[in-house]
Every structure is written in C-alpha cells, then in structure tokens.
Amino acid sequence: MKLTILGCSGGIGSGRHTTCLKVDDDVLIDAGTGITTLDFEQLLAIDHVFLTHAHLDHTLGLPLLLDSVGDLRATPLTVHALPEVLAVLSTHLFNWHLWPDFREIPSAESPWLRFAPLDFGEALTLKGRTFRPLPVNHVVPACGVHLATTAGSLVFSGDTTHSDAFVAALNAIPDLCHLIIDTSFENALVDIAQASKHHWPDSLAAELQALSVRPELWITHLKPGNEAAIMNELRAAAPNWGLEALMQGQVIEL
Ligand SMILES: [Zn+2]
Ligand SMILES: [Zn+2]
C-alpha cells in the first residue's frame, strides 16, 4: 500500500493544499485542494473516495472531480462516509443548487456518483486494503480512518481534538505503524482550537501519554504560516516522541 500526501495543510497559499491523501492509484481519503495536483489520467483512475467529514477543506474537490471525469467513467465513483456526512452532502452540496446531483446524472439508473454509507463498527475492504471509521471529536460528525493491510496499519485522524474513544481505538491496533494526527494551532490559540475542535500542542502531548502503541507520528492540518511554531511547541511538549510534520508530496508505504 502506497499513501501519497496530495495535501495536508490547514489552509492554502504559497503552494499549500488542504487534505487529500491518495491510497495507491484508485482511492482518495478526503478530497481537499490537494486533488488539484493530480493530472487528468490520475483523476480518471480514482474509483473510491473515503471522506472523514463534510467540511469544505476536505470535500471541495469532489464536485469538480465528477465534473471533470464523470462522462469518461465506466462505473460510478463511490463515496464512502458516515451516514450523517452523506446526508450533509445530499442536502447542501449535490442539491441542484450549489452543484448538480451526480447521483442522477446522466440517469438515476446509470449515474456518475454513488453514496455508500460506512458507519462505526463497519469496515470496507478494497483490493486487500481495509478501511474502518474510528471515533474522533470534531465540531461536526467526523471519523478517523484505520487503513489496514497485511503489512501493518496506518491511522489518519482527520480533524479532531481530544478523544478518549480515539485513543482507545488506537490502543486496540497492535500493528499500528503510522499515525497521522491533527494539530492545527499553536498553544496561544487554544481558544480557537477548542472552539473548532482541533488539537493544539499541549492537548496532543497529553493524548500521546495515553497511547500504549508506538507508531511513527506525522502531524497534519498545521495552520499556514504557523507550521514551525506549532512543531517547535509539539517537540517541547512531547520530547519522547519523534514528531514530524506531514509533507505535501510525501509517500508512506506499508
Ligand atoms: Zn473540519
Ligand atoms: Zn479540516
């Protein structure tokens, strides 16, 4: 399994892209602006999109992806997400007002887009890669993703702040090799981090103390312009962990 980081920033500017991770050639986890780094053939190869939540920085590429390659697809693009997330997309995005409902284009019998609810406790296996939603704690319905292969496991938190349930889920994955986890703001912006339910360095450091597994740690969703400050505070707060900022263009293999 090859995970390519197309976008992992908390915002845009100077080449930064928002969250979009590519699993091998055919699956995306989230569809933020990182999707725009793919060329046309690569866009056409995407058959499945797993969404952690409906926020625009994780979904805005999806309607444009369908508009670009929908007519060339032989089968519908399938979007996997929590039922609550799919309901938001139905009501607020693919609603014929903000964007056409590609679940009915060119016909309801043979559409370009298909929704596939994936709830907690369920798992989806695609060509030997198993995707499982994990509980997290964000301002809207959201999940992390446990990506399991025969070579080991990787977890992507999506957007989250402190969550006992997430920690418990991580501790139940003995073969956890990589953990990609949100830390969006520096400590001085704790009020914004709490209001928007993201981690800040001190909250992540406290979370790590409860971990009984020892994955490689990659920090994501860093606020643009504050990346170095956040990473410095994190390393000071959690000196026993080898913390690295996740980088756009990075590839993680399992
Ligand atoms: Zn969010
Ligand atoms: Zn986000």
UniProtKB/TrEMBL annotation:
This is 3',5'-cyclic-nucleotide phosphodiesterase. GO terms for biological process: cAMP catabolic process. Residues 17-199 form the Metallo-beta-lactamase domain. Pfam families: Lactamase_B_2. Transmembrane segments: none annotated. One of its GO terms (molecular function) is 3',5'-cyclic-AMP phosphodiesterase activity. CDD domains: class_II_PDE_MBL-fold (cd07735). PANTHER family: TRNASE Z TRZ1 (PTHR46504). It comes from Thiobacillus denitrificans.
